[in-house]
Design goal:
This protein is an alpha/beta fold. It folds into three domains: 4-16 and 201-298, 4-hydroxy-3-methylbut-2-enyl diphosphate reductase, catalytic domain (Cobalt-precorrin-4 Transmethylase, domain 1); 18-101, Rossmann fold, CATH 3.40.50.11270; 103-187, Cobalt-precorrin-4 Transmethylase, domain 1. It is built from eleven helices and twelve strands. The strands form three sheets. It has a five-stranded parallel beta sheet with strand order 10-9-11-1-12, with helices on both faces. A four-stranded parallel beta sheet has the order 3-2-4-5, sandwiched between helices. It has a three-stranded parallel beta sheet with strand order 7-6-8, sandwiched between helices. Helix 8 packs parallel to helix 9 (229-240). The mean pLDDT is 96.
């Protein structure tokens, strides 16, 4: 039986970003340097396949520092941690390595600088997300107020409307965040924003590629994990850009083939913590069922690389 033709649009950039690449490398290098087990506080990045493969190499994933023994190294995830966490590790004289993405660290430094200048912070982010928890935990309780929506801006209670600054989670929807920023500026005309946008280059680039690809596609799949903020945002951006059927899949096994019956074109992208091996698995699944023509939708070139911490670059 002949296969139906299918145009498969591949978004570029997609998948791993420099911060994720660095975080995974940190765990691998720590295992090489100190041997197993190495403890990791929270999933190093939000992808089950990545976490499972590091676990197989000897990484032990925990949610809190008190689950770690004093005599083994601990790594803090790419999302960042509240200031109290490294302080507690230092008090216990633990070896710890901070795998916080440098672009998240930049937001932490920004928040501290504003606080030093006497400004109360407003953070645009998702409640409970580890990055938001980590950023809010850079300052004492009450110094950072969280807003998730335009509606939240109307009700947020501030200390002094003229002494405010805002930061954002790095993995948000660029368009949704712009609406919240506009609402903040309207309500608090003197609010101080970031020198350069907090939403990271990788999040922005992946969303732009989806916007360019969405109008061409009957359907779109985003390879990523349900707890990955940037992956979920790609699904939303795809739908808003005109691709009604945009779905998140962790890997090829999760594809709902019945929902894709009769399609002539599909777009594929991946969140910043999804490895290329899972993207290739999804592509191969389509090639097994359709006569596939691959087209690349390239909107940016990425060549960013972040150094790993010095402690991992010097011999034990």
């Amino acid at each position: 039986m002949s296969k139906s033709p299918l145009t498969l649009y591949m978004a570029a950039p997609r998948g791993f970003c420099a911060g994720v690449d660095r975080a995974i490398k940190i765990v691998e290098m720590a295992l090489e340097k100190w041997g197993a087990p190495v403890y990791v506080r929270h999933e190093i990045v939000h992808n089950k396949f990545v976490v499972d493969s590091l676990r197989d190499q000897g990484a032990v994933f925990v949610e809190e520092l008190d689950e770690c023994p004093d005599d083994r190294p601990v790594i803090f995830s790419a999302h960042g941690v509240p200031k109290a966490v490294p302080a507690a590790a230092a008090a216990r004289e633990m070896i710890y390595v901070d795998a916080t993405c440098p672009l998240v660290s930049k937001v932490h430094i920004e928040a501290q600088r504003h606080a030093d200048n006497g400004l109360q912070m407003i953070m645009i982010g998702h409640k409970g997300h580890p990055e938001t928890v980590g950023t809010m935990g850079q300052l004492p309780e009450g110094e950072v107020l969280l807003v998730e929506t335009v509606e939240d801006v109307a009700t947020v209670q501030v200390r002094d409307a003229d002494k405010l600054a805002f930061v954002t989670q790095t993995t948000l929807s660029v368009d949704d965040t712009a609406d919240i920023v506009a609402a903040l500026n309207a309500r608090f005309p003197n609010i101080v924003g970031p020198h350069k946008e907090d939403i990271c280059y990788a999040t922005t680039n992946r969303q732009e590629a989806v916007k360019a690809m969405a109008p061409k596609c009957d359907a779109m799949l985003v390879v990523g994990a349900p707890n990955s903020s940037n992956s979920q945002r790609l699904v939303e951006v795809g739908r808003k850009a005109g691709c009604v059927y945009a779905q998140l899949v962790m890997r090829a096994d999760n594809i709902d083939w019945r929902a894709l019956d009769g399609i002539a074109s599909i777009g594929i992208t991946a969140g910043a913590s999804a490895p290329e091996v899972l993207i290739n698995e999804v592509v191969d699944a389509f090639k097994a069922r359709f006569e596939v023509t691959v087209e690349h939708v390239v909107t940016a070139e990425e060549n960013v690389e972040f150094k790993v911490p010095r402690v991992l670059r010097v011999p034990a």
